[in-house]
Structure formats: C-alpha cells, structure tokens
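A reminder from the course coordinator: this example appears on the midterm review sheet, so study it carefully.

Given structure:
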C-alpha cells in the first residue's frame, strides 16, 4: 500500500489550529509513514504555530468577510479566486487521500476544490453555533464531527458524528498532579485558588474585572493565578505578589487546572472542551466580539445543564461579586457544577475523529 497523505486546513485562531494539530498527531501515531500538509491563511498565526508543531504548511491569500463595508471586503472575490487556484495546484501536486477542515476561512477554498475532485473530506466543528465556512462546505462533506448536540440545525443529520473537540491529553489525570502544581506555582496552603484565563492574547474586560476585585479576592482569602495574555501583561505585572500571580502565558495548563478551586474563563470552544475534562466550578465570561456571538452560545449550552455559571460583560460591575460569593460560599453548588460539567466531557474526541477519517480511507 502506498503512503497515506493527509491535508489539514483551518486557522485564523488557535481554536481552529489546535484541533487540526491534535488530529494530525493522532493520525501520525497510527500511520508513522504518512505524509502531512497543512494549508492556512498566509498572514495568520498558523504560519508560525504549525511548523513549531513539526508540520509543513502552505499559505493562501485569503481572509474573512468583515461585517461592515471595508476595502478588505472589496478584495475578497480576488482573494477567493486566487485561493481556489492555489488550492487546485496544492491538491494536484500532493494528491491527498483525505482532506480535513477544522474551520476558519482558510479551509473554505481548499475543501471546496477537494470536493470538486471527489477527494473525501471531513469537517470538524468546534462550536455550538456552526461557523460560516463549515456551513458553506457541509453539503458536500463526507462527515462532520461536532462537539455539541443539536447540530442538525446547521448540517445534514446523516453526516454528523458527535465526537467532541480534541483536548490536551495531559488533562486526563490532573487530580494526581496536585503536589506538582503546589511546587510549580508556590501555592499558599490555606488559601483557595482562583484561576483566571482569557486566551493567549488576553481579554481586556476580564483583566479589568480582576484588577478591580483584587482586594475582594484578598478579603475572601483567595490566591489568584492570573493569565493576562500577551497584550496586557506589561500593564498588570505590577500586581505580582504571593497572593496574586500574574502570568503572560501559562506553559503548564495541566498544573494550572490542577491548582484551581474555581476558574474564570472565556468560552471559546477549545476552553469549554478542556474545562469539561477538568471538572472544576467555572464562571464563564463570554467574549461578545466573536462571530455569531458563539462564545455566549457555547457557555449557555453548559449553563442549561447546570454545569457552569455565566456572566455577560455588561453585567460584571453589577453582579460579579454577589455571583462569585454565592459560588465560593456553597460547597453543594461547587460539587454540582463539577459533577455536571464532567458528564459533558469527551476525553476520546481525537481518537474518535481519527476513526471517522480512517473509515473514509477504507471506503476508497
């Protein structure tokens, strides 16, 4: 049998790149001789992140459509035609067995061409509200792996496979890492720990909230592990102390999750899937600045199952302290949230997605 060849495409944000890399890693583990090629947008973060993960990547001249009229929108038809042309060249040269799209505008032209060439395609949709690109590609895709129930409102029901989102495998046994976390973060033994995560770049409103409530956390005998993100670290590092740890980035998320008693987080698809595995009480503060307001929809899907709490950015000043006090004062609420969020975890998501991809190869 000749070497298997896989193309993976998706990007623009870490939420599209990380699942693609996780899927590639699992396929590589199963097929060490296989060849892999990633395709992304030529000026986005995948062009750095993917080579760091050990894979080759080609860039397309493509970007998303802005919601308001901009010069960038006027260029979109030209970018799309250019990207379709380059996608045809890439596919003709590489001759993939399967093409996998994880969302983001870069995956649109490539999977469209793959469908035209009758190459099997698999979509992976991370969010509870499907993205524009995956909706555009859904009718011609062979399989669509989703992370939330009820996705037949966006996709053909017979193509959907409920697999969950790929997550870091080092999260599976975080309960056994408490001593390591204690040493790594120099934790104060008699204090409960609040972990604050707002994404790699950071979340402006969450950072402002934490700054405004540092004395409130101290009054409630809480130690804060605060990931500010790259854009905000310089502004907030002055608050560094034994009780308030300020980090630009957290290299050991497994230990950060292990250390946490409570978590304040954005509600991106990857974060939500990880937090289901972590099984700690979570207060989600969704970003209102994302397409289709999908972070609010992701968070609400957990709130409905009594698996998490949520506050909108507009309610933070008025409601944060009372909501958070209700959480830290009630062990019963903490246990209920932890137990219910764990029920939604999909620890085998990456393996299940790889299984679906392999079934398509066998069909060929």
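Designed residues:
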């Amino acid at each position: 049998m000749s070497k298997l060849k896989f193309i993976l495409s998706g990007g623009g944000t870490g939420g599209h790149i990380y699942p693609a890399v996780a899927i590639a890693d699992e396929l590589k583990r199963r097929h060490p001789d296989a060849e892999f090629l990633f395709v992304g947008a030529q000026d986005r973060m995948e062009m750095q992140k993917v080579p760091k993960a050990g894979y080759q990547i080609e860039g397309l001249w493509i970007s998303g459509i802005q919601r308001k009229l901009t010069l960038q929108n006027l260029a979109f038809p030209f970018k799309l035609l250019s990207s379709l042309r380059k996608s045809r060249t890439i596919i003709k040269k590489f001759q993939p067995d399967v093409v996998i799209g994880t969302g983001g505008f870069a995956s649109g032209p490539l999977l469209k061409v793959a469908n035209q060439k009758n190459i099997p395609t698999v979509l992976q949709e991370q969010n509870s509200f499907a993205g524009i690109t995956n909706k555009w590609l859904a009718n011609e895709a062979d399989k669509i792996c989703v992370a939330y129930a009820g996705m037949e409102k966006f996709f053909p029901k017979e193509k959907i496979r409920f697999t969950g989102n790929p997550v870091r495998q080092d999260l599976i046994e975080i309960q056994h890492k408490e001593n390591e976390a204690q040493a790594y973060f120099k934790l104060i033994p008699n204090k409960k720990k609040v972990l604050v995560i707002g994404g790699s770049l950071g979340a402006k409103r969450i950072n402002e909230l934490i700054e405004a409530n540092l004395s409130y956390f101290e009054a409630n005998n809480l130690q804060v592990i605060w990931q500010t993100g790259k854009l905000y670290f310089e502004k907030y590092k002055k608050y560094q102390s034994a009780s308030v740890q300020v980090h630009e980035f957290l290299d050991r998320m497994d230990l950060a999750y292990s250390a946490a008693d409570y978590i304040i987080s954005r509600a991106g698809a990857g974060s939500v899937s990880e937090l289901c595995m972590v099984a700690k009480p979570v207060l989600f503060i969704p970003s209102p600045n994302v397409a289709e307001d999908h972070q609010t929809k992701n968070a609400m899907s957990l709130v409905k199952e009594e698996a998490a709490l949520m506050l909108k950015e507009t309610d933070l000043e008025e409601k944060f302290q009372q909501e958070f006090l209700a959480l830290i004062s009630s062990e019963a609420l903490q246990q209920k949230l932890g137990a219910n969020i764990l029920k939604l975890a999909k620890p085998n998501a990456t393996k299940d997605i790889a299984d679906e991809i392999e079934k398509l190869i066998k069909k060929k």
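The CA atoms of residues 224 and 330 lie 19 Å apart. The chain has a mean pLDDT of 89.
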